[in-house]
């Protein structure tokens, strides 16, 4: 199934595809446009026979012997009456200043378009081809070739006379010629030849593949890709990239200096009418014949323009377009021509009744195709990337089309989200889109994406959306009120709307809370506070603190504390009501925050804790450094708070009384032992032993815990004989185990200590055994002169101590009779430091 991408109708360019067997999702590579204006007038009365293309203009030859110069829009700029019969070929030099024309009656003309020079000659046979030198404008390149039954080279001599030379003959009519640089390629009935104009040598002969085809009906198509690369198409065969190369000197002999190498060759499905290069690809114009299903006869179908990627032995089709040119049903293969403009990648499909221009698609065309396929997101992305290059499209227009497409599909959320990017800061477009969403009942979809600053829309827009939510979604309404700044809409209008809804549902907590927030925006803090208190909502504390409403809640503190006691921390002390339990709670919260902030109230706090919150009294006494201890002790003794009294007595230094109170009041030996451990006082342990000696349960407790603090023998010796002590055996076993554990710990510590000492001793020994560098920079610590003599040949003695101090031997005092060891004078003055041994260097 062929893919058809374009259809061309009379007088206009359509982007609609042909009647297709299968619509392709691939984007076309080329776009087509009929060449109109003057061309339309010409072809209504005449028929095109040939055309050549220059970057500046076009030259069209007709069957009635006329040559027209056209601009790129098809307007006629000049007309030449060359012959009464068909123009076979037109040739232009690269400058576009000289033109060669040949016709079916044997006429040949070469003339300057802007000068008077010209060549006229009439031959006795039809001249099928002509090619002027690419640089004909130069005086040294006044050459051209013509072809009929033989190929002639015309060259102007130094006397301005033209002389001719036969380059080739004897193989039938010359039907195609292309001149590029110094190389001329032509085709006759037998094949393709290439001639080097400099060396005057024919380089190669490429034979025709299919000799069954009539060369006059299926002519050869030639085109140069560059100065050394020729592309040949003949019948259904394509020889791609016939590369002209230099021959190595060792291979020359009698051979031409250059040769041709065919790089790629492949067959096509249809007959080739024209070739043109496109980067590393080929544009191929094909003549198509098909068989009718009804009559089973062969008929001429639309010509095809294919883009092909040549491979080594085959090809890959990139795109294929079937073109509806005028009169294609009567055309033959020889009636079609493909010309191209190298500078702009324009391809001209020439037929007797039509001239069609094919162009590479630009970014605007790419966007057109994406929009046609409803690929709006890709089109928008392509426009953003190439916004400097696109001419026919605007990013905003594509974006609006994308939004409309999404809305039509029902993707309202995506459409609303895209509004942020596409509409940007255009307030008018935002308002237009909001009204469009309102018409389809989708205001909720666009609400999360509305701008809330730069730009700001009209208040009516925001109010309209709030009313939409208020009618159907209280939670959504509350969310918008929280998220939107209060200055976007008329607050009083929304407040009234909420109050109207509360008349129907007065207990709706969502509406009440939202109304409180609206009152807050409106600085109506009293009403907001009343609603929050009614709802018992924690946001009331933030409201009080943020807007300093403490004076307004003085009579509501107890109510607030009922559902969150932390409110007391927000209040300044002058707003606390004169209720003792409230004061106690306030001072407690204040103390937890900062132990020093309410220090002047610490004395009062003692009695308040004792009255209302005893569990926090002892932690307060431990942490406070400002409470009067005597006052606290008096209060605790009055109320018989034993634990608090014990702590205060111990803090005041009366540990014996505290211990006695634990023993007599609490009767808790564990607490007494723990207290003795904390105080770490031997006399206190003695008192504890004396008190416990006649109490067997106390003795058991002491035996179990005393071992690591006091020698258990002191307790055991005082136990009376015959006294029954519960779990005595277990207690004694525990004492022995604790003692054994202590012994093991001491031995382990001793081993570690010895190992560490030995390791350090070895390390010190290794360090002291290392050599010491002695050079010219060192000095004697006694005489302060250099340690080494200036004359190294003289013998000398140097003493170096381990402390790194150096002396001349003669500068050290003589050792005493009692000890032969020498010591560093400097380190000996510092309690005999590390200089305890001597290194001697003698030379």
Helix tally? 26
What is the straight-line distance between the termini? 107 Å
Describe the largest sheet.
4 strands, antiparallel
Query: CATH H-level name of the domain at 38-169... which superfamily?
Result: YVTN repeat-like/Quinoprotein amine dehydrogenase
| Beta fraction | 15-25%
Q: Over all CA atoms, what is the radius of gyration? A: 56 Å
What would you say this structure looks like, in words?
Plays a role in vesicle-mediated protein trafficking to lysosomal compartments including the endocytic membrane transport pathways. It is a peripheral membrane protein. Pfam families: Beta-prop_Vps41 (PF23411), TPR_Vps41 (PF23556), zf-RING_Vps41 (PF23555). Belongs to the VPS41 family. The chain is α+β, with helices and mostly antiparallel strands and 843 residues long. Among the domains are: 38-169, Methylamine Dehydrogenase, Chain H (7 Propeller); 361-454, Alpha Horseshoe (Serine Threonine Protein Phosphatase 5, Tetratricopeptide repeat), CATH 1.25.40; 771-813, no CATH class. The protein is built from 26 helices and 35 strands. The strands form ten sheets. The protein has a four-stranded antiparallel beta sheet with strand order 3-32-31-30, with helices on one face. A four-stranded antiparallel beta sheet has the order 4-5-6-7, covered by helices on one side. The chain has a four-stranded antiparallel beta sheet with strand order 8-9-10-11, with no helix packed on it. A hairpin with a 2-residue loop joins strand 20 (221-226) and strand 21 (229-234). Helix 8 runs antiparallel to helix 9 and helix 11 (509-521) runs antiparallel to helix 12 (525-535).
């Amino acid at each position: 199934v062929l893919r058809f991408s374009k259809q061309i109708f009379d007088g206009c360019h359509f982007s609609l595809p042909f009647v297709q067997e299968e619509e392709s999702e691939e984007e076309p590579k080329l776009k087509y446009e009929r060449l109109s204006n003057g061309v339309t007038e010409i072809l209504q009365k005449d028929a095109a026979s040939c055309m050549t293309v220059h970057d500046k203009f076009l030259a069209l030859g007709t069957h009635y012997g006329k040559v027209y110069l056209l601009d790129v829009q098809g307007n006629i700029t000049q007309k030449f009456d060359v012959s009464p019969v068909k123009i076979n070929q037109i040739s232009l030099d690269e400058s576009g200043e000289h033109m060669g024309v040949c016709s079916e009656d044997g006429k040949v003309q070469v003339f300057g378009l802007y000068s008077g020079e010209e060549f006229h000659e009439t031959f006795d046979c039809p001249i099928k081809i002509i090619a002027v030198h690419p640089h004909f404008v130069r005086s040294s390149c006044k050459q051209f070739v013509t072809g009929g039954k033989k190929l002639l080279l015309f060259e102007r001599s130094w006397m301005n006379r033209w002389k001719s030379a036969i380059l080739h003959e004897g193989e039938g009519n010359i039907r195609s010629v292309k001149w590029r640089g110094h190389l001329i390629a032509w085709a006759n009935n037998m094949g393709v030849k290439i001639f080097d104009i400099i060396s005057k040598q024919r380089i190669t002969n490429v034979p025709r593949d299919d000799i069954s085809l009539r060369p006059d009906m299926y002519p050869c198509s030639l085109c140069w890709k560059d100065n050394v690369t020729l592309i040949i198409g003949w019948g259904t065969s394509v020889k791609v990239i016939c590369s002209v190369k230099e021959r190595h000197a060792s291979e020359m002999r009698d051979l031409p200096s250059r040769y041709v190498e065919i790089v790629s060759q492949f067959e096509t499905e249809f007959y080739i009418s024209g070739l043109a290069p496109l980067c590393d690809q080929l544009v191929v114009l094909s003549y198509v014949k098909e068989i009718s299903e009804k009559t089973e006869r062969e008929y001429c179908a639309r010509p095809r323009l294919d883009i092909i990627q040549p491979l080594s032995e085959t090809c890959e089709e990139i795109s294929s377009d079937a073109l509806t040119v005028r009169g294609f049903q009567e055309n033959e293969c020889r009636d079609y021509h493909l010309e191209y403009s190298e500078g702009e990648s324009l391809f001209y499909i020439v037929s007797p009744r039509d001239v069609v221009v094919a162009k590479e698609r630009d970014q605007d065309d790419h966007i057109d195709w994406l929009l046609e396929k409803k690929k709006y997101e890709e089109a928008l992305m392509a426009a953003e990337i190439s916004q400097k290059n696109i001419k026919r499209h605007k990013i905003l227009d594509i974006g609006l089309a994308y939004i409309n497409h999404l809305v039509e599909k029902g993707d309202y959320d995506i459409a609303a989200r895209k509004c942020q990017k596409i509409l940007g800061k255009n307030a008018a477009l935002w308002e237009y889109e909001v009204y469009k969403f309102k018409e389809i009942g989708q205001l909720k979809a666009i609400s999360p994406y509305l701008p809330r600053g730069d730009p700001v829309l009209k208040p009516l827009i925001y109010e309209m959306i709030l009313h939409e939510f208020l009618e159907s979604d209280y939670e959504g309404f509350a969310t918008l009120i929280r998220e939107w700044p209060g200055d976007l809409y008329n607050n009083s209008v929304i407040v009234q709307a909420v109050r109207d809804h509360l008349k129907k549902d007065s207990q709706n907590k969502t509406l009440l809370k939202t109304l409180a927030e609206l009152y807050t925006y409106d600085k109506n803090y009293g009403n907001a506070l009343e609603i929050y208190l009614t709802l018992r909502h924690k946001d009331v504390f933030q409201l009080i603190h943020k807007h300093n409403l403490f004076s307004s809640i003085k009579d509501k503190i107890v109510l607030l504390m009922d559902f969150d006691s932390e409110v007391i921390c927000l209040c300044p002390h002058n707003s606390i009501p004169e209720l003792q339990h409230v004061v106690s709670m306030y001072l407690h919260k204040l103390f937890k925050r900062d132990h020093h902030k309410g220090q002047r109230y610490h004395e009062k706090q003692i009695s308040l804790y004792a009255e209302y919150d005893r569990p926090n009294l002892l932690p307060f006494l431990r942490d406070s450094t400002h409470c009067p201890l005597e006052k606290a002790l008096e209060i605790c003794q009055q109320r018989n708070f034993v634990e608090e009294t014990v702590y205060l007595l111990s803090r005041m230094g009366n540990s014996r009384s505290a211990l006695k109170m634990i023993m007599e009041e609490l009767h808790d030996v564990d607490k007494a032992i723990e207290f003795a451990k904390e105080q770490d006082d031997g006399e206190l342990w003695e008192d504890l032993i004396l008190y416990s000696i006649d109490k067997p349960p106390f003795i058991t407790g002491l035996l179990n815990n005393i071992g690591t603090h006091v020698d258990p023998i002191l307790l055991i010796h005082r136990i009376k004989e015959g006294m029954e002590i519960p779990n005595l055996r277990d207690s004694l076993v525990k004492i022995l185990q604790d003692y054994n554990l202590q012994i093991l710990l001491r031995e382990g510590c001793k081993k570690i200590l010895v190992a560490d000492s030995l390791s350090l001793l070895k390390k010190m020994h290794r360090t002291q055994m290392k050599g010491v560098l002695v050079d010219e920079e060192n000095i004697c610590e006694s005489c302060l002169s250099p340690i080494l003599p200036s004359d190294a040949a003289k013998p000398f003695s140097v003493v170096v101590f381990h402390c790194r101090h150096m002396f001349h031997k003669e500068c050290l005092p003589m050792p005493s009779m009692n000890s032969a060891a020498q010591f560093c004078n400097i380190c000996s003055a510092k309690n005999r430091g590390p200089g305890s041994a001597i290194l001697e260097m003698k030379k």
